[in-house]
Amino acid sequence: MAFEPPERLVRALDETPHDGDAAWRQRLPDLVEEALGACGAVPERVHAPGGRSSVVVLVRLPEDTPAVLKLAPPSAVPEAEALALERWDGWGACRLLDRPAPGTLLLERLRPDVSLRSLAQAKALLEAADTLRKLWVEAPADGVVPTVAERTAAQAACLAEAPELYRPLADAALTARSGLLTDAPENLLLHGAYGQGKVLAGARAPWLAVGPSPVTGERAYDLARLGLDRVEDLVGADTGGSSSRRRLSRLADSLDVDRERLRAWTLFRATYGGVAALRRERRPTGEALLEYAGWL
């Protein structure tokens, strides 16, 4: 198989360089071949556009079993993803089949082109909430998975240097984060990057989560990312502000999450996402997220 890393991954690695990622990218063709050999897999194709933090190769195992080979750079902490998938053991998430090489996961094959984004918004949110509920289990105690405080520390530093135009919003987001971390009510294993696009159709279950960036902390942090799904549609609607607040209220009530804590974490995640997107010159996304944050 002639291998070229997906353009989306290359752009992401260029936008947010980390120690070790450049060397990983240079060795990627060899790493793919080594991983294929280690598990005896025959490649079908590289899934494109794929994610922003990994390469996904659709493969066939001996006895013609379909599977997925996922390779991630050091900055993506694939060890934490593997630990989370092992903890869930297929409950609400794709199943980890093996770890054939460092930084490589062999995963159950789902339907990579069919996500919850294929459903109408109301139905997608309902299915997404039901799947997310299954992932909230007791946090591991080995320290491999970062805490929400650790995950958001660099994001808070980014907001502290936000442009003057967005300073009031950034300050409000930083104040919200500080209060939330001071009085955290629970410590669970969280998906960390949950959204409708991270829930794929499966054979043994209708919908299963993929691509976690796991953290430990409270459910409201995880649910906040789901609240940001299809934000461009909300911003483009005449009733976007009221619709966004109703959406958060429904999500909070359906999963028994405190409404105010969900609003505060959504404010933080939307503001950081908006400022970061503007820095990467992704202006439409950045402006949509910051407008959404302003409604909160």
UniProtKB/TrEMBL annotation:
Keyword Transferase carried by entry: yes
Superkingdom classification of source: Bacteria
Molecular-function GO terms, alphabetical: kinase activity; phosphotransferase activity, alcohol group as acceptor
InterPro entries per record: Kinase-like_dom_sf, NH2Glyco/OHUrea_AB-resist_kin
GO biological process: secondary metabolic process
Keyword tRNA processing attached: no
Key words, A-Z: Kinase, Transferase
Protein name as it appears in the record: Kinase
